[in-house]
Structure formats: C-alpha cells, structure tokens
Specification:
This protein is α/β, with parallel strands linked by helices. The protein contains twelve helices and eight strands.
Length: about 300
C-alpha cells in the first residue's frame, strides 16, 4: 500500500505567467509532511514574487509486512518511497531538493541541484535578488554570521530532539529529549527577547533562524496527543514568553499561513514515528541512538 497526497493549491500565487518566465525557476522536490522541506517552502513563499517554482511531491510512504511484529504494535512497517528524479538529483535522496531550470530551454539542470534544508534557505535568498529587510540572511556580515550560527543551533537543540520524544521507546529517554528541547527553546527565547522583536532579528525582519525553527514549532502540538500532558510546552513559563510571542507572530504571516499542513493530516502521518513503524533515515538514526541531524546515509538506509 502506498500513500500520496496531491498538492492542489498553487503555492506561487503572486506572479503572473509573463512575469514568472523571467524569474529564477526551479523544480522543487518536496514532501508535504516533512518539516525539513517546509523550511525551503517557507523561503520560496517569502520570495514568491522573485522566484518561480513547480512543486513535485517526491517522497511518500509505502507499507511492507512486519511478519515478526518488531514494532510491537501489530502494525506494518512504513517505508519512504522516493521519486526517480529525487534519487538522480540528490545522492541522499532527501527533501528538500531544488533543481534549477535552464533560463532558455526551461529544462531541469540536475547537475546543479541544491539540497540540505538550511542550505536551501540561504540559496533561495541569494538567487532571489532581494535586498534590505526582505533578505532572510542579512547583507551585514556580522548579522549574516549570527543567523547561520543560530540556525544551526536551533536545528540541533530545538528540532532534532523532537524525534527523540517520538521515536525513543523508554519514557526516561523521551523526557530527556523533551527537556533538551525546552532548554533549546529557552535559549532561543532569550535571544529573541534581546531584539526589538517579535522575530529573531530587529523590527520584525524574518530570517533564516525563524525559518529553521518554525516548521517544528508549528508541529509541537503532536506531543500532547502521542506522549501526554507532561510533554506540553508551557505557556506559563516566563522564560518562554518571547518564544510564544514569536510563534504567534510568524504563524500570522500570509507567506507562512499558506504553507502550513493540515493538523489532522499531519497528526496521522507522525503517528508512524510515535508507534515505531516508520522506517526513514531520520527515524533510523534516532532509533540507533544518535541525533536526527547526525544521520548517516549508509548506516540509516532502509
């Protein structure tokens, strides 16, 4: 059994066909459920008047028999299927992957594909031609370096622990990952409190740091459903107040709202991780005992 989801909306909603023909254009290999890909989607939509792209759903799920009930749930394994185009363009066959189109022929240039979620944010921002406050990675060298440092920091401290809460089976291990996540959110929250807010950079300028964290911050609601009330991120902790103000603000942005997956659909999807039936590189890495960002293409293949 294979599951797919058809993208029925046109994410690039603000460019006319005449205008978009002169813009940098891409085939965007993605997956609706993937928070890593969501980072690139957010960057593309932030620059939707400057970049043209075609969404290609290139990663999905298929069931395979678990004859020995290794999952312990009586459910079958769920494995990723990958589009041939994704496997050609990206050695790791992971989303997001951006394939630029030749400006003259409009043919995909697989040899110039760009991947790795944080890299795609920087790349999209660079090719967009944006300047000033429209940049996701500021032109100022110090602020640019600061954003890259913090994007990596939130990736490791606020995003990777998400999978430990869901994939690890022992309650103590799950709580350890949750506490790491909260520590990371408090560090981010403190940094936001030192800007003029409500974003990581001053004056509401959206940045690569905001886009690095947002896909997971939106998805933290799944913890209560699958792991119970002890895994709810507190709205009463004063150290997290700037974080919650940040989240409310970024979720209100039109360029963000049109990228958000349906909560019920995503809750059903992530259940594959919560019941240990998912077989993906991220799930396998966490199951192996390493952080999601330390996955290994060979060790965590499936």
């Amino acid at each position: 059994m294979t599951t797919t989801r058809h993208i029925t909306r046109r994410l690039l909603s603000t460019s006319t066909s005449e205008t978009s023909s002169s813009l940098p254009s891409f085939r965007y290999l993605s997956a609706w459920f993937c928070p890593y890909a969501h980072r690139a989607t957010l960057a593309l939509e932030h620059h939707s008047t400057r970049i043209s792209y075609e969404w290609v759903e290139a990663l999905g799920w298929e069931q395979r028999q678990d004859a020995n009930n290794v999952t312990g749930t009586g459910k079958e394994w769920w494995y990723h299927w990958k589009a041939d185009e994704l496997k050609r363009a990206n050695p790791s066959a992971l989303v997001p992957t951006l394939i630029p189109l030749n400006a003259s022929t409009k043919e995909p240039m697989d040899e110039k594909a760009v991947y790795e979620s944080l890299v795609t944010i920087d790349y999209i921002d660079a090719v967009s031609g944006a300047s000033g406050v429209d940049r996701l990675v500021p032109e100022d060298p110090y602020l640019s370096a600061k954003c890259r440092i913090w994007a990596d920091k939130v990736n490791k401290e606020c995003c990777s622990p998400y999978y430990g809460v869901l994939v690890r089976k022992e309650e103590g291990e799950r709580m350890e990952h949750f506490e790491k996540l909260i520590t990371g959110l408090k560090a981010f929250s403190k940094e936001v409190s030192q800007s003029s807010g409500p974003t990581f950079l001053d004056d509401g300028q959206l940045s690569s740091v905001d886009l690095a964290l947002l896909p997971w911050a939106f998805r933290f609601y799944v913890f209560e459903h699958y792991r119970g009330p002890d895994y709810v991120i507190s709205t009463e902790d004063p150290e997290l107040e700037p974080y919650h103000e940040w989240l409310e603000h970024v979720l209100s942005l039109d360029s963000v709202k049109r990228t958000l997956p349906d909560k019920d659909d995503y809750l059903e999807h992530i259940g594959k991780y919560a019941d240990s039936s998912a077989r993906s590189k991220v799930a396998n890495a966490v199951r192996r005992g390493v952080a999601a960002h330390d996955l290994d293409d060979e060790k965590d293949e499936y």
